[in-house]
Design goal:
alpha+beta; four-stranded antiparallel sheet; 16% strand; elongated
Length: 190
């Protein structure tokens, strides 16, 4: 899908990746695919994806967007998408959602658009086909926005969803359900 793009920047992030023996975009994407899913110590310290050997959809895709920008790789955008997380498109959360009698839960997911095609490098089996028909909303963001902005955006979206559906539970209650779902995903070999 991508042309060969060498990593040419002398910035610290690109140099960290080069020390891992990665010298081009395609090899970087292949590496990111193999890195296990897990939260990093700091959301916006993208080098931690490499040094901690783990990352989430946010940290992995923000790292890739940073590298694309630093190395003049064109047509790469970072997307924050809200999708209907359910048992069909995210099987590891089905049990939790059923306990709370929820058909789905709006979830924030970061991915890239490369040449306007959605791609997900979260883990080796990630594919956009699983959630593509369940995307509710998309916005383009900058890497730094995977921190507090993403959290606030997601919480605001959930609050509006609660009010729109006249649910009897609070945002904190719903957020805790969501955290249980994310924990379930972290426990699986994705």
């Amino acid at each position: 899908m991508r042309q060969y793009f060498p990593l040419i920047s002398s910035d610290p992030l690109t140099q960290l990746i080069k020390r891992k023996g990665i010298y081009n975009w395609n090899d970087l994407v292949a590496l990111i695919y193999t890195i296990p899913y897990g939260r990093n110590a700091k959301r916006t310290a993208f080098e931690l994806v490499i040094s901690e050997n783990q990352g989430t959809c946010s940290s992995k895709h923000a790292l890739l967007k940073c590298i694309a920008d630093l190395n003049n790789i064109p047509n790469v955008t970072l997307i924050l998408g809200m999708y209907k997380m359910n048992a069909q498109n995210t099987p590891h959360v089905g049990t939790i959602l059923s306990v709370y009698q929820l058909d789905y839960l709006p979830e924030a997911h970061c991915y890239l658009k490369i040449e306007n095609v959605r791609v997900d490098y979260t883990h080796a089996t990630a594919t956009m086909t699983a959630i593509e028909n369940d995307i509710i909303q998309e916005i383009e963001i900058q890497p730094v926005q995977v921190g507090q902005f993403k959290i606030a955006y997601h919480r605001d979206f959930l609050q509006a969803w609660i009010e729109e559906n006249a649910f009897a539970f609070s945002l904190e209650y719903l957020w805790n359900i969501r955290e249980r779902c994310i924990e379930a995903l972290s426990q699986k070999d994705l």
